[in-house]
Every structure is written in structure tokens, then in C-alpha cells.
Design a protein that fits this description.
By secondary structure, the protein is mainly alpha-helical. The protein contains ten helices and four strands. Strands 2-1-4-3 form a four-stranded antiparallel sheet. Helix 3 packs parallel to helix 10.
Length: 291
Amino acid sequence: WLSRSFSLGLGRWKAIVIATALTSGLGGMLAIAGLAYLFDDVVIFDDEVVGWSSDRLPLAGVLVTVGVVLTVVGTLASVALMLRTVDGDERGGALGAEATAAWWAIRRGLAVMPRAIGWGLVLTLGFAAAVLVLVLVTVVVLPLGILLIVAAVPAFVFVAVRLAFTVQAIVDRPGNPFRRSFEVSRGRFWATFGRMLLLGLIVWLVSLVVQTVSGLLSGSGFQGFGQDGLVTEDDGTFVSMEMGETFATSPWALVVTVVSTVVVALFTGGVVGAGSAMLYRSRNAAEEPFA
């Protein structure tokens, strides 16, 4: 299973690179540009903020929103591409064929995005309701609340594994994605948990290496994100924060950001996506070929 995950995922590297560059990579650049524009010349002091202009909010908001949307579309597109690959679509073909597959995946991501937003809201509201109940019980009856919080930890892990394939289910077809995600780990919870943990460790290691290398290449990220622009006294007392310097970046840093995003996507969207797609398809056969 793991060997095939690498084979299927990295075998579509051309399509993944194209799809990621046009979605998540571009989206990240737009979001950074929006924040840099919004906070340009803004300086935060202890008792006031200088240089803030609400006139920048509309354009900055549009840039950040479009960036977030493109990132979400990129995630959905990579899932669609891996499902299609597991279903038997030829991989590792000519550049033109892989570009066509990438464009199909992006269109698929756009098509299912409303459905993803809807089910995402359902999941968010359910999680928020559970947290609210825990908080209320803890406030009213502290010992019982603490007991529930302790019990909630393994319960959260259990639910997370059962819901781990929700995105695949949403992209696959309409209907209740939670039920189809639950089906994947039914009767084999620990096997599924172990495989998802292994994939998670792979992503963590790859992300750690890529972030370290990209930080060195771009000068510690975005000018040492969160550090440049910070002015303190010798004893560490806060004086001011120049937000424009905090979000400042160079064209080279933006290029490094896009490249690092694509490299991480090869493993998250490719290897992890292929492994997850195989597990999902083992209990949820394709009803019909992707169009």
C-alpha cells in the first residue's frame, strides 16, 4: 500500500505541479500580496496605531479571499486527481496529457466547492456545539467537565479517523460524505489509524525539510516573518511593530514560496492523496468513471 502510494502519487508529478502552481501557489502569492498591501506603512505602538487606512480593506480583502479560494480549490483538485488515478487513469504521460488532467482536476475542484463549503459548515457547527457543551458543563459542574474533557481526547481521535476521508467522499459524488468516510474504517479502525499516522509523519518530515530549506533560501521566510519590524528595549520591552516590514517580501521569496508549496503538494496531494484514495476506494467503489 505505501509503495503504491508513492508510485501513484509521484507518478502524477507533472499534473500535480501544474494544478498546484495554478491554485495553491498562486493563491498563496495573492494572499501575501493582499496582507503586504493592507499593512504597508502601518506601525503599532503601545497606545496607538499609525498609518492604518481602511481604504485598503476592499482590495486587500479581495486578494486574500481569492487566495484562500484558490488554495481550497487546489486541495479539492489534488483529491480529485488522485481518485481518478486510483480509478485507473493513465499516469506519467506526456506533458500535454498531464496538463489536461490538471485542468480537469481544477474544474472538478471548482465544481464541488459549493458542496465542500456546505458540508464544511455542518462539520464546523457540530464541532463548535460539542466544544460549547464541554465549556458549559465545565462551568456548571467542574469535576464532571474535567472528566468529559479527558474522555473527549480519545473520542476526538476516534472521530478524526472516522472523518479522515470526508474530502474524498465530497469530491467523489453527492450524498452524505460522513457515512462514506465512516465506512472506510469500519471493522479496521486501528489499521486505518496506523496508515493515516504513517502518512501524517511523512508529510510532517517533508514539510519540516522544505520549510527549513525555503527559509534559508529566502532569508528566513518573509524577512524573518514576525521579527523584522519589531522594536524592543534592551530588556525586551515592546516599543513598536512596523507591520509593513513584517509582511515585506521579495520576488525571490515569493518564487521560493511557490516552489516549496509545489514540493509539499507532491507529497500531501500526491503520496498522501493516493494512499487516502486507495483506502477510500477499498470501501467506496466508483459508481461511474469521472467525466
